[in-house]
User: Fold this.
Amino acid sequence: MEAAVQKNIVDEGKFLTFILSKEEYGIEILKVREIIGVIGITPVPQTPDYLRGVINLRGKVIPIIDLRLKFSMPEVEHTQETCIIVVEVNNAPIGVVVDNVSEVLDIKNGEVEDTPQFGHGIDTSFIMGLGKAKNKIIILLDINEILSTDELEMVEQLA
Assistant:
């Protein structure tokens, strides 16, 4: 494996960790607005499969992204543990469907490794780094980079 080419600066702090397909991911807690169970998602025609639709959360329409599908993972049936993490992206709320939420972890700068380079054509810009905590690796996501500019514009039009 090649060394990381680009060093992302990860501010130490608290990360909300969650599970997707048995792997643990983390989002900066400051980006998280709330965590809710999966509620009635209204599909929106002619949108990508990872854009599951929209929900009405206390009178506000929020687009919902299925992170499994966005990351090209197989789709699974929702369980009682499936959650929607409402995050702030470009000052707009977006819901992210995850398998389940784990915990909030304090991760220090010294506990973060750079994102490895996987070669040309593999975009890892949405990974801030790899957190090492409690003898496990947590993929720290930059929620602002998960969607491309075009995808963000499409999502913002739904809200």
